[in-house]
Design brief:
CATH superfamily of one domain: Phosphoribosyl-AMP cyclohydrolase
Strand content: 35-45%
Shape: globular
Structural class: mainly beta
Oligomer: single chain
Helix content: 10-25%
Strand order of the largest sheet: 2-1-6-5
Order of helices and strands: HEEHEEEEEEH
CATH topology of one domain: Ubiquitin-like (UB roll)
Length: 129
């Protein structure tokens, strides 16, 4: 697949991937993809990432049910970052973060401290069993 050869993979064979919600344009999360994850994402129309901690493919939502349907895959001008336009499924509003929040970017720097400003939509203990 020639298009995969155009990606500038890092030394570990990974590329950063950003998931952005289609409707709101909220940045939901950042993760890594290897060649197989990006290929499966394109084939299946759902987000598949590479978990560095588990050293395996991670089908977003495989445990939580919070699947990301992929509408578009873009690459930046240097072909070293992937942007997925997604619809977050599994809960309304969509939960992308393992903390039970809509987005993984819920902390804001205020007064020299990180402060969580977005609510927990669902207790993570009830999501992951």
């Amino acid at each position: 697949m020639g298009w995969l050869d155009e990606i500038r993979w890092d030394a570990q064979g990974l590329v950063p991937a950003i998931a952005q919600e289609q409707g709101s344009k909220d940045v939901l999360m950042f993760a890594w993809m290897n060649r197989e994850a990006l290929q499966k994402t394109a084939e299946l129309g759902r987000a598949v990432y590479f978990s560095r901690s588990r050293n395996k493919l991670w089908f977003k939502g495989e445990e939580s049910g919070h699947v990301q349907l992929v509408h578009e895959i873009r690459v930046d001008c240097d072909t070293d970052v992937v942007l997925l336009t997604v619809t977050q499924q599994g809960h309304t509003p969509g939960i992308a973060c393992h903390t039970g929040r809509h987005s993984c970017f819920f902390s804001v720097l205020k007064d020299d401290q990180w402060q969580a400003v977005d609510p927990v939509l669902k207790n993570p203990d009830s999501i992951y069993k």
